[in-house]
């Protein structure tokens, strides 16, 4: 069989362990965009980078923040100072030592270059980086930012030598401290990494991992079946039954932090009436949504954030109740329903979801017109409006995903009064002064209990106000050959291969 | 003396032909200084060997191609450099009959539409009127109404040529350029057509430029004859004079080659020696000298000028003629 | 001939100049803001503005064009807005696979298409003809993803003969080229049939037979070449389209080709990549069509082009 | 004399609109070895179809031979398979077609087309074949033969093309050459050359020629015997001298009368009135009767049988019923 | 004229019959057996396109979440789709859009392209170069960009899909027709027409166009299928009909993910498209034969 990549590599040195000579292929659904960790916005690039690069902090399997290149860390009470004790004896792939200096160059790079994605997400708030000693470093912020810890996960530490070589090199040829080191990246075809034998972490892992972008669902499944790939992510939900019956394959379901919803423009008639928005929520059968659109996978979205997200509190779900929905519409003065329009991009899943909403709303007399738009055009339509009055947006079918640890990112861009497009993704044009205040407040504290409290209030208030039709939380699927070990899919869709191995 | 319908002076045409795939271009002088005139109602015939430029001359006069040099006067108008858009009136007056009857008929059109086409172009007769004229003209050329509904491939060679003639006649043009109109016809129809052409000529005062290689046909139909050799007219004159007193050796050879329809009169032909020289590289001096049985030294060097050949209207280009 | 080719090549310069303006305007004027798309949904206005400035998109459009052209003249196709990699790098790994795939698809499609078309014409209204028709119609009316996935199912999953995707080794080209060529093969078969039927009526075919030539000589040697003009036109067009890559096939077979890159770039409004690709395709089409024109005069020597 | 070709009662039919149209109504004639036979008749009388029937070149048309025999070297061609015919075509029987413009392949160089039969039938290889081709071209009076080999048909004048056709036909030294109006498109000097050439070839190689033409001058010049065809039937067959001296059939007389003769000072040529009848709509009796000046009442009722006279002459006309003619049944 | 009187009298009898091109066509058309039946099938399709939604056994829009992706059964002879809608009913209802969009867009593209191709091939020179280079550029522009531009300028909608698909077709048709035109304009009968003084328009349409018909018909009938698929791919760019509309191409494309698991979702519209394209091709072949005087009577 040709193309089966799990062949033994005979020339490599033997360390007595047979499994370590295996090679693994991981097929993902999209192309990798960049290998510059400080400027990456897509999940797949992130996944690949995480094989080679590490940050001071990391996530565990549930998405909780744990130390990684830092042995431990502390945050000051005013949430302005972050102190890291660094791991000793860590080396970069190019042989350079990992230490506080290396961390500083990395952070300074992000601080200074405002074209980097991470710059605007926290790092531009940094005022000072103090090297306390070779293995201790302190970072001081201008103002508190609750998402900062998550950013320290994202800010992977690159070899200072590489940083000196410039941006282009960084984007193509990353050098970090991770368990695998970069081998080659053939644009559009594959990216290969090789076990880094000088890795600080313990454990056995495969010799080589090749990441392949395979956009076609059916082809990805075929690769898993033929053994051309040992891991595929995502696995299309339609194939779940078929694959579950296959002995050589195991299907993994991972609860995600992807929230699916329809945002409703709360400033536009008739949606300026909360009763109307609630009515829409009551009109939709979330379980049917999950079974029709998501092939039965996932959970209803029963808060404004997914249950895996930090500070999540379950709310009283809007269970489908057509009578109640009609009643609410009547109260709001829309006995005969109304006409409106829903926007969405042209992914087949989105189109499927929009059709479902259309079918559901028909029952309460809402005549929904579907307008699917090509991504760029859609983005222009949404962000082109400079003021809330200018927008033509009524409803938007979309999903949102943030790191489980990053509740700020899961709420502020979506519900904060200052996040109206084009300044954020608050496409519901939701503005509640109380909520705005809470959000500012929660950001200023480093105290988890206080955060918990505030977020509880935020969730219940917004959920009642119903600026969205709350639909579901995705369950993500991955497929693995049964002989695969130690490959972990995280709730945000990342692939952790630190302990990747094959039997 | 009737007025001149067609007058051609110093007509020249060269084609540039590619020499191989990548070579430079070569010039082929297909027509090289041709001058003659036809009085209204008369017939001028061009005879000559294949490839000597007869058809090209015809195509030049009908302005299917533009001359490189020279003047063409038709009915008092000079048309040699006119643009396509200014030629329509002239095209109504001048019609062509083509050498290849089959290829000149659109295989996808019915005969009635082929023949009616000039009417459709130049008149605003209704369809019915046009078809009526077609039926008339078809009978004139010896075809019947029942042929009108067919396609050209369903006809025999001779019938096809009659279609072509019908098409040329239907406009009752002033000048007909007939490029070998009867060479594909069998004798009986040939006779009919020749008679017909003559009848039409006297009835409508038609003028013919008749291109042929059949000297017996030419003799029958023409008033004047021009003998062409390699792009030039080497001898021209009224037919009686030309046939009774040919001056140019080439004309003589031509005349001797005519087959005579009497097996008892089989004779030794004077077959010209050598090949027709290439018009790309015409011989210096007299163009005929390479094949001329009576060539002299001067013939190789100097091109003979056109001289009066004894009688009026008789012109010869030969060093032998004083 | 050489002169003609040279002239056509020289002609390309002003054309490409105009084309570059067109492409530039077109890509910049369609809706969609790369700065926003690069920044992400959650980005604030300030972030977007910073990125816009950095991408040089806040300058007047003619200034952007001048900068672009200036770079172009120095052989610099620009840097991708999305990946920050030089466009040449992104093309590098994709260009040759695209070319190979195109050639592979074209070669089999031409051969099989001509064969089916010829057989259909020769056996007009016999079973061979009907079979040819059904094959051709299948090839054109079934979408590529269908054929591709079925081929994967049969030849990769069931039989394990060919890999499901990629571009390593000749085997990985087999299934994509089969998928890609199917539609072209169909077109060519139908055109060959139609055109050949016309030629078979010609007198010179009879001449060939009168010489005692076999049908197997008369048809390919005398008839086919006289029928090729529409076939060549279509084949040329398809060849051009193939060079531009096929999104469907590249997607189904996870093939690293130019097509998907273009589509991805369009979705992202990655101007430099779009522009570079379009410019490249324009050149390709112009060259392909030049070749077609030359083929015309080879196939029918009466067709000559005025220089 | 040895017979090379004997055509007996040949009937050829075309189908149009599901309707069978008989073009040849039982054609009889023969050709001896080394003989030149002229086949004359008006346009549409079936001359070309007769020649196509001998070659059985009906592929792609609706034509077929429905009855009759074509004995060539004592073998019946009418029953030969396509494969067997192929070995005969071009090699033993060659043909020159009437349409020089369309009978050459427009996209193949002259040389290629000319070399085909030479390679096929004479088995000559590259250089030899080329030399042979060039020599044949020279024989038929093509100037610049070498260059012409690499030119395309459309670059040549009509006459040149016909000479190419002739060259192609004689290139394999056929036993029988069917020449369908070979010199119609040629000028007299070349015509003279070609006729001369055909004569030479015919005499040297004992080639027989079936010369289809309407140029009675050519017939007189070339032929030994003449077969006159009218509406798909042979109406008269005679030695060339007899025919011109004393044509029997009124149609033959008409044909000879319509030839313009050099030096003849006539304003109008004699011609046969009317024209060849439509083969799909033939009337009873003698097909020529409607155009015949001597038509009698029997002529429109009954078809005249073939009557044989001395000296191998035959004629189908009721005028000679009382004469010495023996009616062949 | 004396000669004319000499014509046979007996021949004129059969010519009394009036000549009518339509009757002539019909007579020949009936003779093309396969094509005749195929044209009846197309007629049937047209009828379905008109009355399809009314004869559908189920509401083509009505979902049934309890019968998702069911294979063919008595009640749903073509099965149900991912919302439990009856596929057969959707096919019937979708005929209108698929047929009208594909047929209209192919026709418009063909007409414009043919005219450009004729002009380009016939006149040659700078006009030819202009048109051809323009079409080269058109070729290089991917459909998706044009589609985005059209949505931006004209907005979404079926009319605009027709416009878009027509535009995609124009350069191909132009190239094809130009190729045949280059050949046809060298024929002697075109020269003959010129010598008669025929206008350019007349020569192009009366003499040259018919010579290109053979390839044109083939191309049109082939493109019907491509157009159905192209139109659906445009709905993926938000140009076409909204996603709930039963359009064959969209049904086929949206069913993509179910190919491995519930193949009937794609096979059914696939069959509909296949049969349609087949019918158009058979009719095209028949038309070619009827329009070609050399074969029409065979
Ligand atoms: N379009 C053309 N391009 C190049 N050469 C041409 C063209 N037309 C004619 N010629 C050449 O010009 C010369 C004269 O050709 P023309 O057709 O006028 O001869 P002709 O006298 O009519 O001969 P024929 O009696 O055989 O018809 C020939 O050598 C021919 O090859
Ligand atoms: N393919 C065909 N289909 C139907 N009828 C045909 C076909 N070919 C020839 N005919 C008819 O057969 C008859 C004889 O034609 P043929 O070509 O043999 O005439 P011909 O004697 O060679 O005339 P010409 O001297 O004009 O060449 C004509 O009436 C013609 O219409
Ligand atoms: Mg000529
Ligand atoms: Mg004939």
Question: How are the secondary structure elements laid out?
Answer:
The complex is a heteropentamer of chains A (503), B (322), C (307), D (329) and E (298).
Chain A: E1 23-28, H1 43-52, E2 57-59, E3 65-67, E4 70-75, E5 81-86, H2 100-112, H3 117-120, E6 126-133, E7 136-141, H4 148-154, H5 160-164, H6 167-172, E8 180-186, E9 190-195, E10 208-213, H7 217-226, E11 231-233, H8 240-244, E12 249-264, H9 274-283, H10 286-293, E13 299-300, H11 322-331, E14 338-344, H12 348-362, E15 366-372, H13 375-383, E16 395-401, H14 407-415, H15 433-443, H16 448-465, E17 468-481, E18 484-485, E19 488-489, E20 495-496, E21 501-502
Parallel strand pairs in A: 1-10, 1-11, 14-15, 14-16
Antiparallel strand pairs in A: 2-3, 4-5, 5-7, 6-7, 8-9, 9-10, 11-17, 12-16, 12-17, 13-17, 18-21, 19-20
Helix pairs in contact in A: 9-11, 14-15, 15-16
Chain B: E1 4-18, E2 25-39, E3 43-48, H1 54-61, E4 69-74, E5 77-78, H2 88-93, E6 94-97, H3 111-122, H4 127-140, H5 157-169, E7 175-179, H6 187-204, E8 207-211, H7 215-221, E9 224-229, E10 232-238, H8 239-244, H9 249-257, H10 297-301, E11 307-308, E12 315-316
Parallel strand pairs in B: 3-8, 3-9, 6-7, 7-8
Antiparallel strand pairs in B: 1-2, 1-4, 4-5, 9-10, 10-12, 11-12
Chain E: H1 2-5, H2 21-31, H3 33-55, H4 87-123, H5 125-140, H6 143-154, H7 158-184, H8 188-195, H9 200-235, H10 248-254, H11 264-291
Helix pairs in contact in E: 3-4, 3-11, 4-5, 4-7, 4-9, 5-7, 6-7, 7-9, 8-9, 9-10, 9-11, 10-11
Bound molecules: adenosine-5'-triphosphate (2 copies) and magnesium ion (2 copies).
Protein name (chain C): Glutathione transport system permease protein GsiC
Main location (chain C): membrane
Pfam family, one (chain C): BPD_transp_1
